[in-house]
Amino acid sequence: MGSHQAVPQNLELRIVWCDGAVDTGFEGRMNQSAREVEWGNWLRLAVDGDAVAYDRFLRAVTPYLRSMARKRCNMLGVSAGEAEDVVQEVLLAVHLKRATWDTSRPIGPWLSTIVRNKMIDSFRKRGRHISVPIDDVMETLQAEDRRSGLEPVDLEKMLAGLRDPQREIVRSISVSGDGIRETAERLKMSEGAVRVVLHRALKGLAMLYRSE
Amino acid sequence: MQTDDLIKLMTQDARVRHRFNPVFAVAVIGGLLMSVLLLIGTIGLRPDLAQAIQTPRVAFKIGLMFILAATCTRIALCIGKPGVSLKPALAILAVPVLLLVSGIVLELRSVASGEWAARLIGQNPGFCLLFLPLLSLAPLALMFAALKQAAPGSPSMAGAAAGFASGAIAGSVYALHCPDDSPLFVATWYFIGITLVAFGGWLLGGRMLRW
């Protein structure tokens, strides 16, 4: 009994945002690291509509998520190719739930809690039939931005799960690299409508990951 | 899909249109108003409300329910926000609990023991048990709609918290009608009614508040 429990509750996802400062995600800390302050500033600008700041924020956070996800993959015996899917699922959660961050508070406790919850969730789903030896998970993570060696879930497979015009807009922005305006012009839609559809498409992608 | 492509998509959707706090506030206020309208439109306020509210028992009943509703609503708000500690919100719950305990003690001292049972059962406990959950439906539905945008660590617990909050809101509204004023009645039947709603919230939360 219990020998095949997927991801034990006590699997602690320690999140190391920067030089030695460990955030368990349960409680806020007195000191915010410089990195946390910087990330907080970027996300603060982003929720007010600054796409450049948001791009910085996401690209700064992603290597940490990737490094965490790979560690867990090794530890849990999940194929390394799934790490990138976990990263994307966590990024989508951060994106879709960013309205719950109170911008007057430090970003650390919010970000680490949401990342921890989503990552546990994602690995629990993947590790359903794996019995797990729990080693020491307290090592410090290093932020190395290695490109993923294995291709994550195929773009076309993901797109197939979306309806038009969501699919068309996702393709236009992600593959062709068009902005909202170009996409709106090409599809003869208003920019506002493109934004609404894009937001729904991101929700749809999160649903696809969850149901996988 | 490459993570890079996903980031491109997300940056084009950077702006947050509705922050969670105001969304939740609108849900709570809307739910309270709908609940009051439902009460007025059906069983109505108690006819002697203006005088009754000046008596200690009625003032206590209505005041206690409003304090309970406010504290539970704050818990439901905090539970939806990652990284926000629930401890301060839970600690304030001691205020309505202590108030209720003192109300019960005062009632037991001021009323002869032979009358305790009659006070506890009141005139229509069944009606309270039926109407309180009914009045909680609008606040519960709206609070769930708001919490769907949140990220609770435990969806079931978030559902239960929303259930307690909307049950307590319904209790404050029902108190404007209810002719049974003894703290013994409130401690029993209101409590059972609110717990029923919380149980419903717990069941629904596990299904509806996943993210």
The two chains with the largest interface, and their residue counts, are: A-B, 60 and 32 residues
Number of helices of chain A: 8
By DSSP, the count of extended strands of chain B is 0
Task: Return the string of H and E elements of chain B.
Answer: HHHHHHHHHH
Describe the structure.
- The complex is a heterodimer of chains A (212) and B (211).
- Chain A is mainly α.
- Chain A has two domains: 1-145, no CATH class; 153-212, Winged helix-like DNA-binding domain superfamily/Winged helix DNA-binding domain (Arc Repressor Mutant, subunit A, Orthogonal Bundle).
- Chain A is 57% helix and 3% strand.
- Chain A contains eight helices and two strands.
- A two-stranded antiparallel sheet of chain A has the order 1-2.
- The longest helix of chain A has 26 residues, at 51-76.
- With 211 residues, chain B is mostly helical.
- Helices cover 74% and strands 0% of the residues of chain B.
- Chain B has one domain (18-208).
- Classes of the chains: A mainly alpha (212), B mainly alpha (211).
- Chains A and B meet through α2, α3, α4, α6 and α8 of A and α1 and α2 of B.
What key attributes describe this structure?
heterodimer; A: 212 residues; mainly alpha; Arc Repressor Mutant, subunit A; 2 domains; two-stranded antiparallel sheet; 57% helix; globular; B: mainly alpha; 10 helices; 0% strand
Question: In a nutshell, what does this entry contain?
Answer:
Chain A has 212 residues and is mostly helical. Helix content of chain A is 57%, strand content 3%. Chain A folds into two domains: 1-145, no CATH class; 153-212, Winged helix-like DNA-binding domain superfamily/Winged helix DNA-binding domain (Arc Repressor Mutant, subunit A).
Mind sketching the topology for me?
The complex is a heterodimer of chains A (212) and B (211).
Chain A (H helix, E strand, L loop, with lengths): L14 E4 L2 E3 L10 H14 L3 H26 L5 H15 L10 H20 L28 H6 L5 H10 L4 H8 L3 H21 L1
Antiparallel strand pairs in A: 1-2
Helix pairs in contact in A: 1-2, 2-3, 3-4, 3-8, 6-8, 7-8
Chain B lengths: L2 H9 L8 H22 L7 H4 L3 H24 L7 H6 L1 H17 L5 H6 L3 H23 L7 H20 L8 H26 L3
Helix pairs in contact in B: 2-8, 2-9, 4-6, 4-9, 8-9, 8-10, 9-10
